[in-house]
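Sample pair:
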Amino acid sequence: MTLALVPFPTDQPTAVALAEEAVRVRLAPGENLHDLLPPIVSAIHGGRATGGLLRDGGEARGILLWEPAGPLGVALRLVYLVPPTARPELYRAALDVAERSAGPIAFVGGPLGGLTADEESAILTARGFAPFGRSEMAFPSNLPVPRVVAPNGSEVRPVRVADESELARLHERAYHLHIDRYLSLEDLDPVRDADLQLRDIFSGRYGELLSPGSVAVTLGGRIVSAVLAVRRPAHVLLVDVMTDPALHRKGFGRSALAASLTALRGRGESAIVLNVTEENTRAVRLYSSLGFVRTIGPSQEWYHARRMATNLPT
């Protein structure tokens, strides 16, 4: 069997049907098909979806859909083969087609429908990928906010517009060798990338930056921990939670989060969420200890470990 990629406009009804099957297969706990599918269907109908149908002869055997993932390659969001095509050797062929069409692949969304976990792992690890998971965690609306206890000598205050540059340097230190840096990578240079990340947050790319609500913890006049909160349509998102690695486990991150939750509740916000990489066990423990609970995930994802040097904290 030889798989060829054909554009979605060639057969939009089949593309939509296979996209729905692919999304169903990779739904993480708590995810809703009817939240995830409409943007994909709209992109297919509008000619904005990047990828195509996988065909053998005249028969559709599967679907590929990708999106840019920055300088290291594309993110392959949907890779799905219909039974009985869903065999290891044909998934290898599908990935080959994706790389020939889109270039280097940085991320692959799993699971690969029809394969066992061992078969999926064998295919992707042989290509240099390693697994990770992402979850959404929410602070329950009926839970009292934790008490703010600032470490000795530190000060907790709202984030100011003038903090952008200093927060970029904190972001650079906090995300060094962290997979989360690669999830929104814009520049391979860590200094320029951190500047771009903070510029995006302060300019409102992810929603209005809330202050009060966004918090900085200073020590000796220097920002050593921060939480940046933005307005999203259905909730407040803690889009960046960061602490200087030299001060981990000393209460600075806990203090920043508690102060952020207190300020957000003071604004009348009840829906407060953040996203976390499951392999970042230190962060998961911190969020859980403050009362955050998983609402979506963990997802099953793969990143190209040969291109992304990571050292996740435990």
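The chain has two domains: 4-133, 137-298.
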